[in-house]
Amino acid sequence: MEWPDQEGRETRDEWQGGNRGQRKREGKYERRAYVRWANVGISRCRWDKRNRQATTQIEKEGPSENIGKEGQSSFQLQLRQLWKWSCGEGLRVGKQMRGAETSSWMKQLASSSRQGRHGHALHLFFTRLSLQASIAGTVDPYPASVPTALRACAHLADAASGRLIHALVLTRPALASDKVVATALLDMYAKCGLIPSARKVFDEMPARDLVVWNALLAGYARHGLPEHALALAVKMRGLGLSPDLVTWNAAVSGFAMAGDGRMASDLVGAMQEDGFQPDVVTWTTLVSGSVLNFQYGRARTLFREMVAGGARVLPSSATLSSILPAFAGVGDTKHGKEVHGYAVVTGVEQELTVSSALVDMYAKSGLVHEACRLFDKMAERSTVTWNSMIFGLANSGHCREAVSLFDRMLGEEATPDHLTFTAVLTACSYGGMVEAGKALYQRMRDERGIVPRLEHYACMVHLLGRAGRLVEAHDFIRAMPVEPDCFVWGALLGACRSHGNVELAELAASRVRTVEPENAASYVLLSGALADAGKQNDVLKIKRLVKRRRLKKLDGCSWLETS
């Protein structure tokens, strides 16, 4: 087939194997290639006047939050192309689908959705539309396929594709008035964080059942609006609709994730008064919320109450993966190993979330060999798993092994993210591998297209500073396209203290105080550098200044396991 422009040719090459690392891993479709491919394909289809009006409406009225200027411009361009371009020959892919029955195609779509292959499901949906356009010159989706495609968008947090489907829905009165489609639209917007859009769909629905109310309520809770979730539950009860267990769990989740444990507990009490007993979802939500807000003691207490207290609820794999970071955060390997034993007995050890959490727990606790043993046993590894292992090796002093593991990650066609590069740059810094670190930083930008974040800049300054290349580190900071934060300047200050450069230490300390005036650590480091240089009078001045400003350095701590 002929692709109409350079963008199309690049997308074809990417889809057909030009970049296997992004295209496919262990038989699962990755998101970037097919979504871009599908959007390019569908934007070539001929659209009638109704489609033009619908896409214009979405473009004008649809909220643009969480997309950013570049993404919003790209999306608006695609909307214009929906009716501007002609299909020509259409997308001649999936030839076996030309003669396939709709029921057969729907079975493939439903099967992909059930198996969690949401990327593949979305690919099938857009492929079908493209073939329709190439054969019949119009796009008319099978009604039952639209909710499935929207659920795929929700799981992938792909708001752009979801909006394209919404534009298509608005051109089909039967779809626009379908309650299942409207509920899927609301859920998609809510899970993508576009709460105003979700609320708009909710308000425009002529009839709302409990599923619809719960979808919006869960969206409020998931995105840090617990008060809105609670107000919606109260309104729902006022309209004569009784909340169910899903409603209560969503409300509890909102306050638990926001760190308001007291309100979450009060809601659990109200839930019991309403005749509902907390289930495994309720307890997992409470534990997860505590861990998310670094309330590790509360998380462990809740977990004990869940499994051994009055609740007697069996934890799920989600519960185990939620509680393990609480043990890792305080070095409690004893109870962490007990959870590991339970995972083995119940047969969930090899589930990706559980095994990843176990690797992270052992790595953070310094049990690197145990973490490596589990890591090598895993049948499937996510980017999070690789990151945990690389960080664990780096923090335990196995820096060259950490870099080797990063190379192995690339060799297995896993996709590194910004945290992966933070981990491997940390390993280079601790291991004194300056040139390797500089090369990795360059590869991150040039090959992977990852825009450096402040943590990457801090890693590079730390890398150069530990090697004694202080002037180069300072020049690196001056060349940064963003304003350095206290961690970037703090890395330089610590290096100046180690290498006795008082002049540069004073400069770095002044920058830290400008960014974060209450940071006592900068005064302590500068005082140490001055003391090493024999400038006792300046040290006394620093101490008087700290005392006058009533600054207090946070005490460090170490964890010791006792019987």
From TrEMBL:
Residues 1-28 are annotated as: Disordered. GO terms for biological process: RNA modification. Residues 1-15 have a biased composition (Basic and acidic residues). Pfam families: E_motif, PPR, PPR_2. Signal peptide: none annotated. GO terms for molecular function: RNA binding. InterPro entries: E_motif, PPR_At4g14850-like_plant, PPR_rpt, TPR-like_helical_dom_sf. NCBIfam families: PPR. This is Pentatricopeptide repeat-containing protein.
